[in-house]
Amino acid sequence: MNFNKKLEKAIKKNNSLLCVGLDSDVDRLRESFGESRQFLFNKSIIEATKTHVCSYKLNTAFYEAIGHSGIKALKDTCDYLREKHPEIPLIIDAKRGDIGNTNDGYVQFVFTYLGGDAVTINPYFGEEAIRPFLNKKDKGIIVLCKTSNAGAGEIQDLVISNGMRDLVPTLRRDAYNASLDFSASPRNDMKLYQYIAYQVSHEWNKNKNCLLVVGAMYPNELKQVRKIVGQDMTLLIPGIGAQGGDLEATLKAGLNSRGRGLIINSSRNIVFAKNPREEAKKLRVEINKFC
Amino acid sequence: MNFNKKLEKAIKKNNSLLCVGLDSDVDRLRESFGESRQFLFNKSIIEATKTHVCSYKLNTAFYEAIGHSGIKALKDTCDYLREKHPEIPLIIDAKRGDIGNTNDGYVQFVFTYLGGDAVTINPYFGEEAIRPFLNKKDKGIIVLCKTSNAGAGEIQDLVISNGMRDLVPTLRRDAYNASLDFSASPRNDMKLYQYIAYQVSHEWNKNKNCLLVVGAMYPNELKQVRKIVGQDMTLLIPGIGAQGGDLEATLKAGLNSRGRGLIINSSRNIVFAKNPREEAKKLRVEINKFC
C-alpha cells in the first residue's frame, strides 16, 4: 500500500487529520526513564494518542543530538510503531538532501533501516539530485516549500523574474494566470516557494508520491500553494500550537474541496502536555470543526 | 583556535588545499573488515593520506545508511582523528537545516557528539532559522551555494527580479554593479546562488565563520561567487575527480589573490584508488601547480 492510501485509511479510521510529532528532546525527559528514555517516552505518548492521530512524525534532530544511542531510540520507536500499530503512517522528518547517489544513504536510513512511510526533504538541489527519494513510489516524499520559521521569507519569498516567462513552458499562460492570485504582483512573477510548489506538483510528482510542507504561520501562502497544486496533493502543516499558527485560518486556507488534504502536526504542545491524550483529542476535535 | 585559523595552519603545514572525503560506502568495503569496517577503512585512508591533506570531510549519508552502527563508526573516526591528528580540521558534511531551536539537536550532534570543526548546512530556511549554527563562533559554517550536481540550476539559477532593487539595501548600487559581471543580464538581476553568496558574506557572516560550497562543475559560477564574497571567504569545492570537475578552471576561477581561499575535495577517486596515498599526493601536487 502506498503512503497516500495508508494515510487516507488512517484518517478515516481515527477521523483525524492530526499528526503527533514525537519531538522527545532528551533535556526535557525525566531522568528516571534511564538509558532508553527517548524510546520509553515515545511509547507512552503513542499509547496515549494512538486513537486520535492520522500519523506520527519523528524529527531526526532530537535523536541525533545524543548520537548513536539516539538513533537507536529512533529505530526502536519506529520498530515499535510498525509492529504494534502498522496501520499508522510514520513520517521521518529528516529534511535531508544531497547530490544524486549520495542520497541513497539517506534513502536507506529512512526507508530500510527505520522503515518509515514518508520523509521530508529539502528542494535546494533540484529534482535531478533527489531522484533516489522520488523513485520510491510507495513512500511519501514531502518537500519543504514554505517553512514555519519567522525568517522563512528571506529565501522562500524571493521573487523570480523569469517565473512565468520561462519557467512554466508546459502550462498555458492563461491557465497558470487563472490558477494564481497575483493581485499584488501584476507582472505575474512568482515567489520561490510558489515555484517550488509548482515544480513539485507539475514536474517532480511523476509517481504521485509528493507532498509539500507549508508552515501554519502562513495561511495566505498556504492558500496560494493549494491553488497551485490543485485538490489532490496533501500538505504537511507544522507550526500549530507552540509556534503559534492559527488553526482556523490554516484549515480554511489549506483544506481541499473534500475537506481533506492536510496533515496538521503538533509536537511539543501534545507530547509535553500534562495529559497528552486529552490534548491530542482536543486538537483532533477542534480540527474536525472546520472539515 | 577557530576553524579558519586551524585550516590555515593545516594548509601551511602540509602545503595542501586538498580535502579527502571519507565516503566509505559500506557496499564498496571488503567484508573482511567485519563489524567496524567503516572505521577501519577510514583509519587506513587517514594514515595513508594525512601528510597530503588540509582537512578531512565526512558525509553523514554514508554512515546513516546502516543506522546507529554507522553513526558509531562515524564517531569512532572523528574520535580517532581528534586524538591522533588534532591539527587536521574535520568537516562534517551533513547538509542539515531545520527551524530555530530544532537545529540545536544538529549542532549538538556535529560539534558535541562528533567534535567536528565545521559543518555544511542548507540555506533554504534563511539566516534566522540557522542561527544555532552561525552562533558557533569557533566552528566553520559552510553554506550550500551552487551544488555540484548536474541539475543544480533548476532552483539555484533562478533569476531573482528584485535582487538589485530591493535585496541589497546596505550596499551602494554602483559598488554592487562593479563587483559583478552581468554582461548577460543587463537588468542587474541576480541568480539565487549569487544572492545566497551575497547574503552569507554580507549578512550571515557576523562571526566571520561562514564558508560556501560551490561545485567544481561550475567554474563560471565560482568566479561570480569569488567576486561577490571578496578575498577572505574560503570556498569548499566538491566535484573534482569522479564527478568530472575541471581542476585548472576551478583553481583559476576560485583562488583568492593570495593563491588560497579554496578547499578542494576529492572523495571516491582517492579513497577507492589502488593507492590512496599516491592518488592524494598526485592531486595535491597538481593543485599546487596553479596556486
Task: Sum up the structure in keywords.
14 helices, Aldolase_TIM (chains A, B), homodimer, alpha/beta, 8-stranded parallel barrel, two-stranded antiparallel sheet, 291 residues, TIM Barrel
The CATH class of chain A, by name, is Alpha Beta
Q: What is the residue-mean pLDDT of chain A, rounded to a whole number? A: 91
Question: What are the secondary-structure elements of chain A, in order, as H or E?
Answer: HEHEHHEHEHEHEHHEHEHEHEHH
- The share of residues in extended strands of chain A comes to 15-25%
CATH architecture of chain A: Alpha-Beta Barrel
What share of the residues of chain A lie within helices? Answer: 40-55%
Rg of chain A, please? 19 Å
Largest interface (CB within 8 Å) is between: A-B, 63 and 64 residues
Task: Describe the fold and architecture.
The structure is a homodimer. Chain A is α/β, with parallel strands linked by helices and about 290 residues long. The first copy, chain A, has a single domain (about 5-150, about 210-290), classed as Aldolase class I (TIM Barrel, Alpha-Beta Barrel). In chain A, about 45% of the residues lie in helices and about 15% in strands. Chain A has 14 helices and 10 strands. The first copy, chain A, has helices at about 5-15, 35-50, 60-65, 70-85, 105-115, 130-135, 155, 165, 175-180, 190-205, 220-230, 245-255, 270, 275-290; strands spanning about 20, 55-60, 90-95, 120, 140-145, 160, 190, 210-215, 235, 260-265. In chain A, the strands form 2 sheets. Chain A has an 8-stranded parallel β-barrel, surrounded by 7 helices. In chain A, helix 5 (about 105-115) links the parallel strand 3 (about 90-95) and strand 4. In chain A, helix 10 runs parallel beside helix 11. The longest helix of chain A is centred in the N-terminal third of the chain and has 17 residues, at about 70-85. The radius of gyration of chain A is 19 Å and the shape is globular. The model of chain A is unreliable at about 170-175 and about 180-185 (pLDDT under 50). At the A-B interface, helix 3, helix 4, helix 5, helix 7 and strand 6 of A face helix 3, helix 4, helix 5, helix 7 and strand 6 of B. Chains A, B: Pathway: Pyrimidine metabolism; UMP biosynthesis via de novo pathway; UMP from orotate: step 2/2. Chains A, B: One of its GO terms (biological process) is 'de novo' UMP biosynthetic process. Chains A, B: Its EC number is 4.1.1.23. Chains A, B: This is Orotidine-5'-phosphate decarboxylase. Chains A, B: One of its GO terms (molecular function) is orotidine-5'-phosphate decarboxylase activity.
